[in-house]
Amino acid sequence: MPTRKQRRRQQKERRHEYEIVYVDDEGNEVEAEPEGKTSEVKAKSQSSGVRPTTKQPAQRAKQSGGKEPVGARAPRKIDPPSWGRVGRRAAIFAPIMVIVVYYLNRNASNPVRETLISSTVLVLFFLPFSYFMDSVMYRQYRKRSGDPIPPRERKPPSP
Predict the structure, then answer these.
(1) What would the DSSP string read from start to end of 51-69?
(2) What value does the mean pLDDT take over residues 58-75?
């Protein structure tokens, strides 16, 4: 039985348009004629042994020089890293961390104090790590979009 992902792919393949390409007896691909000439092509294909085949859009893209298909989705815009966004993220996750740590430390001698200390340490690790991950994602986004970040200017050493 196909997985959900496989079923979605199969449904997607059925939705896409296909290009009709004719293959002659020697195995060479012959372009399809415009719509007006289809009856002539059908008659010719029956007599000359040319049989129609279909190509999926992904195969056409590979043959056209490896370029992305015209309808390709644009990548999601990623904003530059900011401490404000990191602070908002910490405000969301800090209460969740407190609750989890409290339930993990409820058998301790002083669970509230232990929870506050552990949660504070976790948040102090979370803040710079979150900023670092934002900066990595932003650099990757800029690199993929073809707009690299210029290198930092180095200050000359002070005497």
Answers:
(1) EEEEE-HHHHHHHTTSPPP
(2) 56
How many CA atoms does the CB half-sphere of 124 hold within 13 Å?
6
Whether 61 contacts 33, CB under 8 Å: no
- Look up residue 5 and give its two tokens: 């992902």
pTM of the model: 0.49
Average pLDDT rounded to a whole number, residues 88-99: 94
What pLDDT is recorded for position 34?
A: 61
Greatest Cα pair distance in the chain: 91
CA distances from 3 to 10, 13, 14, 15, 93 (A): 11, 15, 17, 19, 33
- pLDDT for 121: 94
